Structure formats: C-alpha cells, structure tokens
Amino acid sequence: MIEMKEQTISFPAKAENVRIVENLIDEICEQHKINEDHYGNILIALTEAVNNAIHHGNKADPKKTVVVSFESSSEEICFVVKDQGEGFDHKNLPDPTSAENIENPNGRGIFLMKHLTDNLEFTDNGREVSLKFKLFVN
After folding, report:
1. 6 — phi, psi (to 5°)?
2. From CA 29, how far away is CA 33, in angstroms rounded?
3. What CATH number belongs to 5-134?
4. What's the CA gap between 39 and 28, in Å, rounded?
5. Cβ distance 136 to 38 under 8 Å?
6. 134: burial class by Cβ within 10 Å (0-12, 13-18, 19+)?
7. Which of 10, 18, 48, 127 is the most exposed place for a label (fewest CB within 10 A)?
8. Alpha-carbon separation of residue 15 from 10, 40, 99 (angstroms)
9. What is the mean pLDDT of the chain?
10. How crowded is residue 89: how many other Cβ atoms within 10 Å of its Cβ?
C-alpha cells in the first residue's frame, strides 16, 4: 500500500510570498531525500507556477489568494497551484525558443515547467496547474 501525505497552504497574491513556497519545497525535498538535481527542477518549476499564479492569474492583487497543495507517495510528488484569475489558453502560447520570441523577457515559465516536470496538466481553464515529479530512490 502506498501512503499518501497531503498538505495545503494558501497566501495572498504578493510577490514576496514565493518565499513561503520555497520553504515548503525545502522541507519536502529534505523529507523525501531528494537529490540536488531533482530539487532544482522542483524549485524552478514550482516557483514559476506560483509566480504565474500571482502575477498573471491574480494580477498581483493581494485580495486574491494562491493555493498550493502538495501530495506525495513513495513514487511521486504532486503539487497543484490554483489562482483566482480569469484563466488562459495554455494550448496556444508562443514558443519562447523561436527567433521572434528569443529576446522577450517573459514567456519562458510554462516552457520550463513542461521540461522540468514528469507531468504537467492545466485544468479549470488554466487557473489550476498540476506538476508531478517522479521520486527516484538512490
């Protein structure tokens, strides 16, 4: 039987609250003895998701909330990030690696999230994103 552990945190949509998520990642990765490379992937992908929720979803409105839930088993860790924004079409985003976009300072977050996670899913019209990472036993 696989034991699942779950935790949820919520906070106002303010940029400085990304630190709360960074602390959560540190705790979870220490608890699961995540290696440094995998830790980096989790940290970058999840902070990108939270930054997107704060800045793009909730428009940095501190009256709106970002909710991050976390669930783990012996095989994987899953994070879900929810915002209270209007949502977006995650299927039609410009390619940040194309010549016309390469100089743009924005637009790489979802691209990074897709490449750093083992599974990335958007639901609720883009207001909710699930990031899954497989756990590898050393």
Report:
1. -130, 145
2. 6
3. 3.30.565.10
4. 10
5. yes
6. exposed
7. 10
8. 13, 20, 30
9. 89
10. 9
pLDDT of residue 113: 95
Mean pLDDT of 66-85: 94
Give me the percent of the chain exceeding a pLDDT of 90: 68
CB atoms within 10 A of CB 112: 16
Beta bridge partners of 122: 129
Alpha helices in 17-129 (DSSP H): 18-31, 36-52, 109-116
Instruction: Tell me the C-alpha to C-alpha distance, in Å, between residue 82 and each of 6, 79, 109, 128, 130.
Output: 16, 10, 16, 4, 9
What are the extents of the domains in the chain?
5-134
Report whether pLDDT(4) > 60. Answer: no
Residue 1 banded pLDDT, cuts 50, 70, 90: very low
> Can you say whether the dihedral through the CA atoms of 127, 91, 20, 14 is positive or negative?
negative
Helix (H, G, I), strand (E, B) or coil at 117: coil
| C-alpha span between 96 and 118 (Å, rounded) | 20
